[in-house]
Specification:
The protein is of the alpha/beta class and about 350 residues long. The protein has one domain: Aldolase class I (TIM Barrel), CATH 3.20.20. It contains 13 helices and ten strands. The protein starts with 16 loop residues before the first strand and ends in a 12-residue tail after the last helix. Belongs to the DeoC/FbaB aldolase family. DeoC type 2 subfamily.
Length: about 350
Amino acid sequence: MFEAPTLSTLSQPVVALHRGTAVQPLRNPGMPFDAGWLDGLRVNQSAVERRTATLATRRTVKKDAQAAWLLKAITCIDLTTLSGDDTEGRVRRLCAKARQPVRADLLDALGIAPHAITTGAVCVYHRFVAAAVDALQGSGIPVAAVSTGFPAGLIPHPLKLKEIEASVADGAAEIDIVITREHVLTGNWQALYDEVREFRAACGPAHLKAILATGDIRTLSNVARASMVCMMAGADFIKTSTGKEGVNATLDVALVMVRMIREYHARTGVLIGFKPAGGVSSAKSVLSYQILMKEELGRAWLEPELFRIGASSLLADIERQLEHYASGRYSAFNRHPVA
């Protein structure tokens, strides 16, 4: 049975399920580096492409179910602003949208309680962490900070650690780090492990999301190995992209990464989250990612504890689709501002 969120269950307290059993995701403690786990990790690209090509054809989500899935997707969005012209005012407006991402009249038409839906987090540069924490006070919405010289990750390593520590001190509950791509491209897996392990230690109580920059590391086999090494080193989430690469999130790299999450869970029992970012801008595309998560990993990975989407414009399109569901009419994008 393809069990998934419904409109009638969205306003109820969420309990993540894995194979029918309630679970509470914990921090990933990591493990000692084991190069043997990387032996034989090769990806058949044509097989990956065949699998992802079937997602939109084998499963369809319509009407009530589609509205419920889109509302669930909103709760998994890391609502993001990472522009050079960001201001504190823009960040505070984004936080207000995170608190109430769907217009009250639409929620009422859908039978959803006011303030029952919020985004999963707000993601900003370190400069705006304190302002975002202040704007979200009392909401329960965490602040995620991009760090370690985002997006290129080419600043000195000690500065990367200090940036993480500064963001945690300012109240960030999640840290999105970028790896050194050179370690992947040269196959220096021990160096990648050591780097991420130190990032994990610098995070303290904050959750660590490791950004692989999949558009930069060239091959799906590199994506598989980098995913496994980052999880060994203690990453709580693995994330596709910074959103600044030439190619960002795709279903192909997502499939490879979630298969590695499944393998890591089978070996360790630890649940690792997944975050596609960059290019997930339409309601149609996010449904494909949700179906992928449900089919490959299970029900637990439809919840924000284990699934996030790095996005900004996605929210406007989802809200527009919900208005069409409620009223039968599409409205202009400017009726659904993000900030």
